[in-house]
Amino acid sequence: MPAKWIDYKGRRVLYADYRKLSSKEFVALLEEADRMILESPGRVLYLGNIEDAAVSREVMDWLRRHGPDTAKKKVDRIAILGVTGVKKVLMDAVTTIFARVAVPARPFRTEQEALDWLVK
User: Fold this and answer.
1) Given Cys at both, which of 1, 13, 61, 82 links 17, Cβ 3.0 to 4.6 Å?
2) Phi, psi of 49, deg, nearest 5
3) Nearest alpha-carbon partner for 44 in 67, 21, 76, 22
4) pLDDT tens, position by position, 11-20
5) pTM value > 0.85
């Protein structure tokens, strides 16, 4: 599933579904989501699902290079689903990367918890 806009409690959220994607597919979807964020008329709430996705050096490098600039300009909050095992290392890096530009990023176990946090 590509990235798409969803409505939750009257707020627009960009939902990017990385589940079961290869590293190359993951980066391609990051690029698509980045474009959608930059084209959005306002600030963005972002929900990413990384369950069973391949997280590689390529993914991390892309996030380091592109994530902070876009986030600083356009993102209010980032919620991530599927942070288990070695993906906790990714989440720690994501939290650090986005904290530098004052954009909170948190992992969640359920979509409901993530969406509630995003819109609060």
Assistant:
1) 1
2) -115, 115
3) 76
4) 999 999 999 9
5) yes
